[in-house]
Predict the 3D structure of the following.
Amino acid sequence: MQLTLISGLSGSGKSIALNVLEDAGYYCVDNLPATLLPQLVSYLSSTGYERVGVAIDVRSGASIAAVPQLVDLLRNMVADVRFLFLDSRDDTLIARFSETRRRHPLAGEGITIGEAIAHERELLGDIGELGHRIDTSNILPNTLRAWIKDMIKADPNKGLTLLFQSFGFKHGIPVDADMVFDVRCLPNPYYTLALRPLTGCDQPVIDFLENVPEVHKMAQDIERFVGEWLPSFVRDGRSYFTVAIGCTGGQHRSVYLAERLAKAFAPHVPVLVRHRSRKTE
């Protein structure tokens, strides 16, 4: 059985993630009390279900605190257990609740949305590090759907999946990054008018950057650093490791370097590439 557990902050996109799993043929359960997970998995496994998705969050009440121990138990019961935690910045979550006019599950009389979110973060503090974390602050629903599809396609038997993610510092540092590299010191194609509307995936921008010696030095230094420390994270039992490359707007330099680094590591480990701020996303 392949078991995918989904958790995260209210308003971060858990419903979207669970819908992707359902569309992919998973048997899905939403808002299951955490303590019922072993019984559910045991029953579904005995009745022949091969792919199961379960969403668990603060609506489970006090049982949410037992999730770390339950995940360890489930990994002894099921060969393939994946844990996805969706997160987002507070300002983004507040804006989403304001737009949808939905009530936060922890909100109540005298409790603001901001206070409810802070309380939820505290309750989920021990859960966010259990698996793959995705910051949904600045991504569109269709982009999140594509990222979830990539995640469920990854083969855990091939070990850790290395994820290179470009972003723009003006939009904030992704909260799901394990390593962050700042490449704003490199020459910016944005200031060449013909290149401004393009991205780091377009050949004219690639040609511009590959003619800059500092770009090659930066790429080589990042590749060497990640390559040196990656085995330590593999030994730590990680399923995913996110390397974030940031420039000012997330359009040119970071996109180019994320793509270049992904190609360099692809022959050695499973690799995914994400562009958080690229306009074509």
Summary: The two ends are 33 Å apart (CA to CA). The first strand starts at residue 2 and ends at 8.
